[in-house]
Amino acid sequence: MSIPTRIAIIEQMHQSLQRLRGRRVAVDQFTEEARLSEELSLDSLDLLEIRFDIEEKWKVELEDKEAAALVTVKDVIDLIQSKMSTNLDEKP
Known about the structure:
Blueprint: H1 6-21, H2 44-58, H3 64-68, H4 73-90
């Protein structure tokens, strides 16, 4: 699997959020700078669901410490791309 583009990750996250939040997340709220808890109003259960979606969709494993450090949408994108890059580097 190749490293996904930032747009692909944002689209996947937006779909997950719409499913979780009952379509209450407006596209204009969903920017890379958006803070997960504050602007997107995600609680700890929502963040856990997003984490599971990320791990399933992108075939990466997030450590608890990494997941806890995610504050913005940009943080999520950067972590996914970093993890996928590392996974590609490790494959023979």
